[in-house]
Amino acid sequence: MSSIAAVGESYQKFNPRAYLQNNYMPPRADFSSEDCVVPWKLRCLAEAFATGDIHGRTLIDVGSGPTIYQLLSACDHFEEIVATDYLEVNREVLRRWVQNEPDGFDWSPYIKHACRIEGKGEQWKEKEQKLRGKLRQILPIDVHQPEPLGSQLCQPADALVSTFCLEAVSPDRPSFERALRNVTTLLQPGGHFLLIGALEESFYLAGEAKLSVVPVSEADVKEALRKSGYHIHDFRAYLMPPGLKIGVDDVSGVFFVHAQKPPVA
Ligand code: SAM
Fold this sequence. Notes:
By secondary structure, the protein is of the alpha/beta class. The protein has a single domain (3-260), classed as 3-Layer(aba) Sandwich (Rossmann fold), CATH 3.40.50. It is 32% helix and 25% strand. Helix 3 (37-50) crosses helix 5 (108-118) and helix 7 crosses helix 8. It is globular. It binds S-adenosylmethionine (SAM). S-adenosylmethionine binds at residues 11, 14, 63-65, 67, 70, 85-87, 90, 141-144, 163-165, 168-169.
């Protein structure tokens, strides 16, 4: 089995509920402290969209998993948001959230926090409803394919978001770089890419699944973006504090990048 096939196999045991519990509940989701990792991620995204530079008809989120926090500050700036994931279990979690089915993960603290830091006086219920309305497509994706969405892609997106996906599904640096090149085909020339990911991580847990991650440094991420032709507008790094090292992974930190695909000459 190729190592990409082995990664695909290891994801078959991915448990969305355990993943959400490990990463999106306290202590990692402590909204009383801006120094905590979850508020840090939300602020990076809110500030990027607040520039007003990132907007258009369609935004594609690559490897959404069972989460929607990464789309909260995007929803005012796009007519349609397309969520994607490799696993049906994750797409089902997202469909259930869009349909407001009972017993889903409670994203309300995230939505309230996003409204607070955006500072536009928006009511959280309004934002929740807006995002549900804009999330009209939840599609299967494989970032290891040269065309990750295949024939499902009608036209390249105006912007991409991807959080904790590419390094978490790539067995080594060359496949990480190739995956980045593949997802770049989903973006139109001149389009913006907000990429968040783990720094120097080698594994994470999601229930019974232990997923291998390719450890990447800040320099590796910048180099991969450069090789795919991006211009980097903003690059930030977060150092995981000892109190948030809780045994569910061995992550050292988190990177955030706002990059842009060059317009056609
Ligand atoms: N974006 C979410 C977040 O911010 O927490 C989830 C990230 S999770 C670490 C990695 C995600 O990549 C999982 O949802 C997994 O199903 C998805 N995935 C696994 N293999 C993939 C592939 N070949 N192409 C795209 N996504 C994949």
